UniProtKB/TrEMBL annotation:
<keyword id="KW-0413">Isomerase</keyword>
<dbReference type="InterPro" id="IPR016066">
    <property type="entry name" value="A-D-PHexomutase_CS"/>
</dbReference>
<protein>
    <recommendedName>
        <fullName>Phosphoglucosamine mutase</fullName>
        <ecNumber>5.4.2.10</ecNumber>
    </recommendedName>
</protein>
<dbReference type="GO" id="GO:0004615">
    <property type="term" value="F:phosphomannomutase activity"/>
</dbReference>
<dbReference type="InterPro" id="IPR036900">
    <property type="entry name" value="A-D-PHexomutase_C_sf"/>
</dbReference>
<feature type="modified residue" description="Phosphoserine">
    <location>
        <position position="101"/>
    </location>
</feature>
<feature type="domain" description="Alpha-D-phosphohexomutase C-terminal">
    <location>
        <begin position="376"/>
        <end position="442"/>
    </location>
</feature>
<dbReference type="InterPro" id="IPR005841">
    <property type="entry name" value="Alpha-D-phosphohexomutase_SF"/>
</dbReference>
<dbReference type="InterPro" id="IPR016055">
    <property type="entry name" value="A-D-PHexomutase_a/b/a-I/II/III"/>
</dbReference>
<dbReference type="InterPro" id="IPR005844">
    <property type="entry name" value="A-D-PHexomutase_a/b/a-I"/>
</dbReference>
<feature type="binding site">
    <location>
        <position position="247"/>
    </location>
    <ligand>
        <name>Mg(2+)</name>
    </ligand>
</feature>
<dbReference type="InterPro" id="IPR005845">
    <property type="entry name" value="A-D-PHexomutase_a/b/a-II"/>
</dbReference>
<feature type="domain" description="Alpha-D-phosphohexomutase alpha/beta/alpha">
    <location>
        <begin position="260"/>
        <end position="371"/>
    </location>
</feature>
<keyword id="KW-0479">Metal-binding</keyword>
<dbReference type="GO" id="GO:0008966">
    <property type="term" value="F:phosphoglucosamine mutase activity"/>
</dbReference>
<dbReference type="InterPro" id="IPR050060">
    <property type="entry name" value="Phosphoglucosamine_mutase"/>
</dbReference>
<dbReference type="GO" id="GO:0009252">
    <property type="term" value="P:peptidoglycan biosynthetic process"/>
</dbReference>
């Protein structure tokens, strides 16, 4: 059956393993028992995005947690980072997000935050998973008068809005700026527009009419071309695209050019180094970040520290080394001074503060980094066999690396949430990238057939 938890919690097709109500009920029981210590009242915050199936899993989790003796605070549709914040703010023992992030509506997922707002370590997830999947596990149910209560918290959006506005420099406003904001019909559809409007911007909104089925559909960070067209149409200063749970950000400049997480990190790292605020002059990112970002940091006397894919691993490295800025090319950006997890709206505010402070357009600021040509192919696979155990794949990788030398990279990995092999090649020569990516894809297809 494989590991229950992937790189970002549990995720899958609704009503198929593992996203089945009966399993999610057991998940609530298991997590409730794991985090319940002693006789005091224990609390869990549960939030979700706008998927139709959120009602199913919200009810199942609530039943499990209450049966395990935990009180449940339901906050409704809110961004993933808002749940991280509210878990800390409300002194809860645990936070839970029901979301499949950038996936389509027919998928859903569940991820956890500990009392400090950090995603759970692999070892903790594995212990909880063992409780869920073991048919012989003995539940330590509380006495009948110690089961939990559930209630809705009405003011949670306002708490999050105030918290994010506090991350923006005091005395600075967004007066005079026109922002096009795409909320992907997702979790930020209510709160994100208000944040930018209250700071003074003129906000033109997209993706703020969720119906349970349209999350991420032709909009948001997966489809920034829609945002780009709207930015050009309205001659806006910047476009901001969030994903379904609003923990990632993709930016469009005033000309409609799309900027990914690497380019945003370069701008923020450059500003923080200039202010002496980048701890160890170190930026933390994953193996997916472009080589140009690594060169960019080196040229400025800094360094890029890489982790495996997943913003949780970026955060773990940041905590271990005391670093303050990290993220992923996909747009997960972590500003540890303000948050314990990736937050697309927070990242947008940090970028906007640089724009306003420098009084320069985003195209000029983001011109600091020109990414190397990079190509990524996602290949559907039946099973995830270690690449280095398949001779034809090993030979193809060795050949590609010999061709690239020190001027490019090859990366083969499996998706942590889907049955996909990801094949990535980057170099300074686009033709070489295309050639090597095609040969590697052919080798992987043949080797895993």
């Amino acid at each position: 059956m494989g590991r229950l938890f992937g790189t970002d919690g549990i995720r899958g097709r609704v009503n198929s393993h593992p996203m089945q109500p009966e399993l999610v009920l057991r998940l609530g029981l298991a997590a409730g028992q794991y985090f319940r210590n002693g006789n005091k009242r224990h609390r869990v915050v549960i939030g979700k995005d706008t998927r139709l199936s959120g009602y199913v899993f919200e009810s199942a989790l609530t039943s499990g947690f209450c049966a395990a003796g935990m009180d449940v605070f339901l906050v409704g549709p809110l961004p993933t980072p808002a749940i991280s914040f509210l878990t800390r703010n409300m002194r809860a023992d645990l936070g839970v997000v029901i979301s499949a992030s950038h996936n389509p509506y027919m998928d859903n997922g569940i991820k956890f935050f500990d009392k400090d707002g950090f995603k759970l370590a692999d070892s903790v997830e594995d212990e909880i998973a063992a409780m869920v999947t073991s048919p012989d596990f003995v539940w330590k149910s509380p006495d009948h008068d110690q089961v939990g209560r559930a209630r809705k918290i009405q003011d949670s959006p306002g708490r999050y809005i105030v918290e994010l506005k506090h991350s923006f420099p005091a005395g600075m406003t967004l007066d005079g700026l026109t922002i096009v904001l795409d909320c992907a019909h997702g979790a930020a559809y209510r709160v994100a527009p208000l944040i930018f409007e209250e700071l003074g911007a003129r906000v033109i909104t997209l993706g703020i009419e969720p119906d349970g089925l349209n999350i991420n559909k032709g909009c948001g960070s997966l489809h920034p071309e829609v945002l780009a067209a709207k930015v050009r149409e309205h001659r806006a200063d910047i476009g901001l695209a969030l994903d379904g749970d609003a923990d990632r950000l993709i930016v469009v400049d005033e000309y409609g050019a799309i900027l990914d997480g690497d380019q945003i990190m370069a701008v923020c790292a450059d500003e923080m180094m200039a202010q002496g605020a980048l701890a160890g002059n170190t930026l933390v990112s994953t193996v997916m970040s472009n080589m140009a970002l690594e060169v960019f940091m080196q040229e400025r006397g800094g360094r890029l520290l890489r982790t495996k894919v997943g913003d949780r691993y970026v955060v773990e490295e940041m905590r271990k080394g005391g670093y303050v800025l990290g993220g992923e090319q996909s747009g997960h950006l972590v500003f540890m001074k303000h948050s314990t997890t990736g937050d697309g709206t927070l990242a947008a505010l940090q970028l906007l503060s640089i724009m306003v402070g420098r009084q320069k357009p985003i195209s000029e600021i983001a011109g600091l980094l020109t990414p190397y040509p990079q190509k990524l192919v996602n290949l559907k696979v039946k099973k995830k066999v270690p690449f280095d155990t398949v001779p034809i794949i090993k030979d193809a990788v060795r050949h590609a690396e010999d061709r690239l030398g020190r001027t490019g990279r090859v990366l083969l990995r499996y998706s942590g949430t889907e049955t996909l092999a990801r094949i990535m090649v980057e170099a300074q020569d686009q033709a070489l990238v295309d050639e090597l990516c095609a040969s590697l894809t052919e080798a992987v297809e043949a080797g895993l057939a």
